[in-house]
């Protein structure tokens, strides 16, 4: 390996959201609880990004900043070379974050009482974007076939054909179930939405985090009609572990939708600020960090294999879902026979492991855990040893 993915960095006393979250539950540093929750990585920033940031600090004035043509080219070149998508720089609207952007999209393109469809279980802020804005949640439950989820297209078509349903927020790849939707699945989704005049907000923030053997298709790249009926939300933040720099790229190929989104943005955020360091880091990431990403993906995949093999051998009642994309493994612990609140307690207090509880993604997630694999492999080994010791005591 050219890059370091194995040094352990203790972040307990930093501002890290993942580590500080544990304080709310009374966890102390001496408890030695390992967090596998919030979706950022325990890996240091790629050195190419650090160098670019140093250069920026040495040479630039930290004034109000807009994306430069060079920045936009770097983003579009990455889309072409990595995602085989011909995106145009003028489609891009910068945003501090994808969550901000999908909240804004809900407010811009739907009215109170309108239906917004989510494929559940799903990333919890998507529920908030629907519920906090007075929209109606239209749930399209995914079908769990054992260790993989499928889409219930008949249910999707039925719910999309209700004239009150105006939008689908698509999570692609899907957090937390780890699916990379195939081109065929995305085509069926897109056709249902076109037929029923449902706008697609495609959150593709995990689109670079694709496991070997799987291919991510950008929703807008499938056809011109799809491109004209969607917003594609991306960022380098998950890919290169720079979420703290708050720079994301919202692609809106349809000029009318784009203008409407911009106009609405100006009302809720009249003077949006952009992060000069975020642009410098993102440009360096897209221009020079492809090799870092490839190595990073191989570490995540190795962590996935370690867990899958261990569970099959030592704790076969626990089901590990296939990880096709994201670095978030979906673990079905119903085989332990514990109530989901008790499972949370057992993991945190007895196994001393802090996952994202499956129930926060919807009630289908009860007794599941979402396990963040973007960490040094020694954390994975330690967690597995703790789980084995603890779960065997609880097995009925
Ligand atoms: C599907 C999905 N969308 C959005 C985000 C967060 O986006 P941002 O930090 O750009 O608001 C996450 C973070 O985990 C995510 O998983």
Give the SSE map.
Layout lengths: L16 H5 L12 E3 L10 H13 L9 H15 L8 E4 L2 H12 L5 E4 L6 H7 L4 E4 L3 E2 L4 E2 L2 H8 L4 E7 L11 H13 L3 E5 L20 H5 L1 E5 L2 H4 L7 E4 L3 H14 L7 H13 L1 H25 L4 E2 L7 E5 L7 H11 L2 E5 L10 E5 L4 H18 L2
Descriptive notes:
- The chain is α/β, with parallel strands linked by helices and 396 residues long.
- It has two domains: 135 residues, Aspartate Aminotransferase, domain 1; 227 residues, Aspartate Aminotransferase, domain 2, CATH 3.40.640.10.
- 41% of the residues lie in helices and 14% in strands.
- It has 14 helices and 14 strands.
- Strands 2-10-9-8-7-3-4 form a seven-stranded mixed β-sheet, with helices on both faces.
- The radius of gyration is 21 Å and the shape is globular.
- The chain starts with 16 loop residues before the first helix and ends with a helix.
- The model has no long low-confidence stretch (mean pLDDT 96).
- The structure holds pyridoxal-5'-phosphate (PLP).
- Pyridoxal-5'-phosphate (PLP) binds next to helix 4.
